[in-house]
Write a structure and sequence with these properties.
The complex is a heterodimer of chains A (396) and B (138). Chain A has 396 residues and is an alpha+beta fold. Chain A folds into two domains: 230 residues, no CATH class; 149 residues, Oxidoreductase, molybdopterin-binding domain (Sulfite Oxidase, Chain A, domain 2, Alpha-Beta Complex). Chain A has eleven helices and ten strands. Chain A has a five-stranded mixed β-sheet. In chain A, strands 3, 4, 7, 8 and 9 form a five-stranded antiparallel β-sheet that branches. In chain A, helix 2 packs across helix 3 and helix 3 crosses helix 4. The N and C termini of chain A lie far apart (61 Å). Chain B is mainly alpha-helical. Chain B has a domain of 74 residues. In chain B, helix 4 packs antiparallel against helix 5. Chain B is extended and about 65 Å long. The chains are: A alpha+beta (396), B mainly alpha (138). Chains A and B meet through helix 2, helix 3, helix 4, helix 5 and helix 6 of A and helix 1, helix 3, helix 4 and helix 5 of B.
Amino acid sequence: MTGVHDRPSLPMFAVDAFPSRVRSERLVARLGSALGIAITVCFLTGLVSHLHQHPVTWLPLPADPVWGYRVTQGVHVALGLATIPLFAVKMWSVYPHLFAWPPSKSLVHGLERLSIGLLAAATGFELITGVFNLAHLYLWSFLFPVAHYAMAWVVVGSVIIHLAIKWPVIVTALRREPVASADAPVDETTVDAEVAAVEGAITRRGLLLAVAGGAAAVTVVTVGQTLRPFGWSGLLAPRSPADLPSGIPINRTASDAGVVSRAEASDYSLTVGGPRGRAFTLADLRALEQMEVELPIACVEGWSATGIWGGVRLRDLLDLCGVDEGATVRTVSLESDGLYASAEVQPAFARHSDTLLALRLGGETLTIDHGYPVRLIAPNRPGVLQTKWVSRVEVL
Amino acid sequence: MIGRRIAVVIGVLAIGYGGLQVLLNWEAASPFGLVVFLVAVAILDDLILLPLALGVGAVVRRALPEPVRSPVQAGLVVLAGLVLVGLPFALSPARNGESATLLTEPYWRNLGVLTAGVAVATTLTVLVRVRRRAGAQG
């Protein structure tokens, strides 16, 4: 097995150009293992969100637990952010390989390098588009969810290929006993100082601790957007719901959606389909049995916040209109266009006792930016599918 | 060996499925824009950020003796992570724009606060190491 420094490399990029004995197969394998776990979790949680937004009949998602979406997407974003320092150091740890010469020694070697290039670029793509999406910094022509989802499969596929190719190296590197002089210092006061003096660099353990510290720091300053106990430390949180009126963030305002006049119109009514379908005025809706539920609104952007929502149970309305229990319905917004102007509500959600057509938030009438006069609020569901300014409930 | 070959096939199929998503959503996926962004990411990573990190690393290695060097290197790793996450928020034109609840923190100031925090932690670590070393030698 050859080490990093035994590889021939481009003369102008001789390995001595950026020497560090901290780079070792063991370090690379340990960083890679952590990265592999993070990628797997991000992929699975991302898949959950994809299935919510693109439901398939053979795998209907449950409406319980009500906090499911909040937790899976909170983890997706927090872990994705924490992965940034990890990915950066992993790239650093294998950087000399980029200049290995010749570029390809054989077809297999060439394909191997191609798959690694794809893995690095696609992983970088996922991390950067993910962060830029949190920042609403759209420096691209593609639709973020489509590209982020497609590229996630590329990342996972190239990780699997990478693991298959490198398996013997990884197993050997992780099994090998650490050599005291080159790895973790046994006694910081003596060995650490010696190692550092000999190597002229941070120890491998020191580097792993720094990466862990970086990941922890990134988490602490951002996770307050979904974990309220960390609200105080959200120095870099893209959202800080703690400071908001009613505690619920707003992604799309009524004026963005162009619905202000229609939402405030005195002749507003909600049309519900079904065999006995009819229109309900706001007064009609207020006259029906009112429920109060405590439900989080959770965004694919990783933020979430709990609200006390009041209004009419969707299933009560559907029953009134004679809608079949197994029916999927669609909530349609006053918004005339936009990706999320309507949303399908599968039976498990439509019939859930917590699913409301909400008229109130925190005991007050909904504000127009929160979806006045009527919005959908259902458990375990992406925020973008909690249709605001609902004007129709169609039976599919 | 057979297991690894099967894994390679599965990996290729997964990549193919990703590619298929692009083909099936041609307009939304904007394949040309996607490839351009992918290449831009590779250039940013391999030809800008990593050389920058190596350059800073080389300066630290030459300029700083132990026991100062390692804590500074560790501090820079932590700071780099914070800057990579915080910069897009600080630079985003969506601040104070489309939504009143988006990007509400003063990110430049907070990046300054975090930089100062990392500097303090690094300095404390250096002081502890200097004292320990003095203790070990005395």
